[in-house]
Amino acid sequence: MIRALALMAALATLPAAARPPRLTLLITVDALGSDVLLRNRPRLQGALGRLLDTGAYYPYARYAYAKCRTAPGHTTLATGANPWRHGIVDNRWVDAATGKLVYAYVDPTHPVLEATQKPGGDSGPANLMAETLADRLRLATQERGKTVSMSFKSRSAIAMAGRLGQAWWFDASVGKFVTGTWYTKEFPAWMKQFNERKVADASFGKKWELMRPREEYVGEDDRSYEADSYGLGRTFPHPLTGGLTAPGTDFYKAYAVSPDSHTLLVEAAKAAIAGEGLGQDAVPDLLAVSFSGTDEVFHEYGPYSWEMQDTMLRLDQALGALFTAAERAAGGRANLTIVLVADHGGATPPEQWAEAGLPAQRIQPKTVLQDVSAMVKERFGPDVTVLMEEMDVYLRGPALESGKVDGAQVRRAVADWLAKQPHVLTAVTRDELYTAPDPMGYLAAVRKGYFPGRSGDVMYVPRPFHVLYYAPDGSNHGTPHSYDAQVPVVFAGKGIKPGLYLTETDPVNVAPTIAALLEMGMPASAEGKPLTEVLTGK
Ligand SMILES: [Zn+2]
To answer: Which domain of life is it from (predicted)?
Structure first.
């Protein structure tokens, strides 16, 4: 009797079983490098600022693979794996069977629904080689927990939805959210209704104005290396017409750059919360929202621009409405966990770096391709073809297929040639990827991003401040250097121990941490680990 009472007393002091949050809001801010958030943070007085103040904030998380781009970034966040496991090595690659450039989430048997399918364009998860959080959640809850994933970009939405969530992305050719037939054969009523509201069209003819007085922005508005796309111009105010007289594709593209795109995503997310009943019961749901406007602004104007400063201020505001809606849906803050991450950072326009005195240069991929091709043709004849996607070089052609020319020899020659170029740090063939000496440690990053049959035959890493970009202005990302690879990771709310965590983590740990929080097993290919220091276990 006494022993039984003692046991009961002991049990009573044990914490109640930890329950996962009813709703997890996973926010990706596209191209939000650590540096951009740190620099803008003092001015963030809204929802984003509060999230950093009240959450577990890692200012420094670093992707471990070399090609820091959108599709691999989102897929790593979704799977807890690097591209060497999840297979999404870049936004695009050269398809081994056809020799054509395809998007990572090409899925010919499951085309886009309610918009024209672009040949080789993203539409479904067919190429995804790993399990996502969304997949795991669906199975772990025995098909009761839901994931809805939304973004302006197809690759971001699909990565986060995996195979068993819903993916919605904004299609600029029709000005509405679409999905692929993998996910559904017919739009649910809530999405039909949302699209019918034509929220984007209400911004037609508007001007993107500065949110704060001009003197609060650092630097200059007009810089010669900023891009001028879709009639937006380089300076405030930016007209939102796309140069058209009525809403059409170029308007929607201009809109995608503007902060109004963030407002639209928040509205769409609210419609999803209501339409799918997210957070309504104890079975956890996941709402993944990837804000793409930050990336568009980054590519057009660069990370120091007034446009980026204003975008951060406006995102800080826009997130408030999303957090409020999510809290309400989950039945209060106590049932909600918010995670905020980024898929990569980004380089400064090289001319701006050069102006400041750094050894920077803009490299035209076309020029590199022409030079490599000329060298290959001269040494190995006209029947070897060179293709390039970012820093991956693909070698094709009848001479290689017939064995007339030794492929390994061509690859070696291309790597040797690349290694001698002033903008190249290191180059490696796929034959030597695992055996070549790696004194600087960059090949380790190339390996983590390598997937046979998708990655190049030769891969290289450019020197820091050397920006490979097709455009004569704007900027790019896609290297293992800190400005591209380093991003913030923030957890807040239910089950999270707040604090500033200055240790460098890896975004590969995000999915395992969420999986632990949701009390389910790790995604099948996860190599990251739960960040147990932020988990309260309650
Ligand atoms: Zn991105």
So the answer is: Bacteria
